[in-house]
Amino acid sequence: MRAGIDKRAMLLLWSDRRGALWLLPAGVAVAGIGIALAADAPSYWLVLVLVVVSGVGVAAFHPEGSKFAAYASGVRRASGMSAFSIGGNVGFALGPILATPFVVAFGLRGGLLLALPGLAIAGALLAAAPFLRGFAPDPAERAQRAVGEDRRGALALLLGVIAFRSLAWFGLVTFVPLWEVSLGHSKAHGNHLLSLMLLTGGLGTIVAGPAADRIGRRPVLLASLLATGPLVLVFVVVGGIPGAIALALVGACVIGTFGVTMVMSQEYLPRHIGMASGLSIGLSIGLGGVAAVALGALADAVDLRAALYVCAAAPVAALALALALPSSTAGRRLQVEPVVP
Questions:
Q1: pLDDT (mean) for 302-322
Q2: Do 65 and 107 reside in the same domain of the chain?
């Protein structure tokens, strides 16, 4: 994970200082090829290397991708970023669905076919590059308009909110199936609940983005954090159908605001929106992985219930930080560095 954060930081600096549209097709292609080759790698260390290569591709794509999502969205940046986030959620959902038939039919070597979707998307992005370049701010236009000042303190607070939100989210993703098994339910039942949470998360994204454009990013974020902790408690303490409904609403609250916090990070750091986007994404994923390990240790030392109670408490801590956030500036087109082909 540390390697992933380091390589993402280097690419963020490149993205902000130079801009590089070519990172979009190149990142997708490298990510797809790396993970496909890892499926049939003959040794553990080669698998590790290829997964890192795939991670480089993912890290290359996201800062530039989120910048162009912001460019194309105009003043409705939260709605645009929500649509961008939905693409990632769909990818997470389709990954196992696409990979399983290949592996069943051809063994692990069938994983090589997973490179094909990535290469197809990379080709489409390469063909669309002239169209996408038209959304980038013109250097002369950028010189005429003020871009605003970076608010690093506000961004630091927001990153703290994202960290606690990720702790709750990845803890639930990790422990919901195990919790259901501990209650005497089947593994399939736990996985169905997890799928329900992910599905409603996508629906929440559709709602939260436009809502943030209409009433503001901060109110939407505060409302989601306020609801998340009690909903997790309903899932743990009450369970049953009310618990399943509560878990579905947790997905809507948490995943629904991923795009919102991405836009807020860009608006807090308007001179370095590639860096802001990457930090938002990196903390969402990287700290979530660390949180899962820490919560796993807690579950081993105490029990699963204790770990889930921490998941319920984390949004409360996030809410305390979010209350101190200033409003991010909405309705102004982002003006950043020119993009080179």
A1: 93
A2: yes
Is residue 17 over pLDDT 70?
no
Q: 80 is in which domain, residue-wise?
A: 2-144
The amino acid that residue 321 corresponds to is L
- The 10 Å Cβ neighbour count of residue 231 is 22
d(CA 231, CA 172): 12
Coil, strand or helix at 340? strand
Cβ atoms of 318 and 124 closer than 8 Å: no
Tokens encoding 110: 């069938």
- Here the tokens at position 193 are 């609940």
Please, where are the H alpha helices in 216-282? Answer: 217-233, 240-256, 258-268, 273-282
Q: Cα–Cα distance between 58 and 27 in angstroms, integer?
A: 6
Torsion, Cα of 38, 68, 223, 315 (10° steps): 30
Residue 327 CA: distances (Å) to CA of 69, 139, 149, 162, 265: 21, 28, 14, 16, 11
| Per-residue pLDDT tens digits for 200-229 | 888 888 888 888 888 888 999 999 999 999
Last residue of a domain, one of 106, 128, 144: 144
DSSP assignment letter at 183: T
Look at residue 4 in the predicted model and tell me its pLDDT: 47
Coil/strand/helix, residue 41: coil
Residues 178 and 104 in one domain: no
CA distance 173 to 139: 44
Q: What sign does the dihedral 223-226-230-235 (CA atoms) show?
A: positive
Which phi and psi angles does 178 have, rounded to 5°? -65, -40
**Which among 167, 174, 175 has a CA at the least distance from the CA of 287?**
167
Task: Find the DSSP H helices in the chain.
Answer: 2-17, 23-39, 44-73, 77-106, 115-127, 129-133, 139-144, 152-182, 187-215, 217-233, 240-256, 258-268, 273-282, 288-301, 304-322
Q: Can you tell me the distance from the alpha carbon of 318 to that of 310, in angstroms, rounded to the nearest whole number?
A: 12
Q: In the numeric block, which tokens belong to residue 139?
A: 């250097």
- The CA-CA-CA angle for residues 121, 257, 188, to 5°, reads 75
Which residues is 340 bridged to in the sheet?
20
Does residue 288 fall inside a structural domain? yes
Tell me, yes or no, whether 341 lies in a domain. Answer: no
